[in-house]
Design goal:
This protein is of the alpha/beta class. Strands 2-1-3-4-5 form a five-stranded parallel beta sheet, sandwiched between helices. Strand 1, helix 8 and strand 2 form a beta-alpha-beta unit. The radius of gyration is 20 Å and the shape is globular.
């Protein structure tokens, strides 16, 4: 690989955790999401060599284009999005595939509207209109019964306020692994929102694993370090949001978790 291509490829590697988060949330699962990322990466990189052994022009052009991390991330988001065709919601009332993509890009991935427009092959005005339409649809959707697993009382109250502000009902707040399992058994929540580190109370991932042994419940993990859960090397969460988060981020993550994401055809 030429020196020209080394830095863009490194930038793509640094972008992979964020691409995995987007793809997993979009399609509703780790395996399908990570497979999408692998396909997208091949499309972005293009052929490394032509049949005569020389560097392919498309690969050289891609190397020039992917000069910085931000551009690499957007290129991956765009390639992932192109692998999932836009379609209206089956019931005619929910979020379209395009609406889901844009909300995930602007909220979960924290892109500006112009960057999200590039990632979805739209002009910025159209992207802004679609984002607003998607937010309105999101606000009108059905509510869920939510279990919060968080050991810090102030943070737990903040999360509860956000959850209830989105129209959901909090059925319990657990500060430890055992408490989380007990509340889940009693309340059978429709969604679990779990911190990773519960301090002296144990491990959020262990609590979720125990809950999932008895209840098939969608789970969203909350962490300040999402890249640590997005290595693609083991069984990892399908839905990860970053502390601190806002109502729209919680809303779209909840919607994707409950609906299991976009179906791949």
């Amino acid at each position: 690989m030429s020196a020209n291509g080394a830095e863009p490829r490194a930038a793509l590697i640094r972008s992979l955790p964020y691409a995995r988060r987007f793809a997993r949330a979009l399609v509703g699962g780790q395996r399908a999401g990570d497979a999408l990322v692998a396909q997208a990466l091949r499309k972005v990189l293009g052929p490394v060599t032509a049949s005569d052994g020389q560097q392919d022009d498309r690969a050289a052009a891609a190397a020039e284009e992917l000069a910085v991390d931000a551009t690499a991330r957007i290129a991956l988001y765009r390639a992932i999005g192109r692998l999932v065709p836009d379609a209206p919601e089956a019931d005619g009332e929910g979020l379209s595939t395009l609406g889901r993509k844009l909300l995930l890009l602007t909220s979960l991935e924290e892109l500006g509207i112009e960057q999200a427009a590039v990632a979805t092959d739209l002009d910025p005005d159209r992207a802004a209109q679609e984002v607003e339409r998607a937010r309105e649809t999101l606000r009108s959707r059905a509510t869920e019964r939510v279990l919060i697993i968080e050991d810090e009382p102030i943070i737990a109250m903040d999360i509860q306020a956000l959850v209830e502000g989105c129209g959901h009902t909090v059925v319990g707040i657990a500060a430890s692994e055992d408490e989380a399992v007990a509340i889940a058994e009693a309340e059978k929540p429709g969604l679990v929102l779990a911190d990773i580190n519960l301090g002296a109370g144990g491990d959020g991932t262990a609590a979720v694993a125990r809950i999932l042994e008895r209840h098939h419940t969608p789970v969203i993990f909350v962490t300040a370090y999402p890249e640590r859960l997005l290595t693609g090397e083991a069984v990892e969460p399908a839905f990860v949001i970053t502390k601190p988060f806002d109502p729209t981020t919680l809303g779209i993550a909840t919607y994707q978790a409950v609906t299991r994401g976009v179906r791949l055809r």
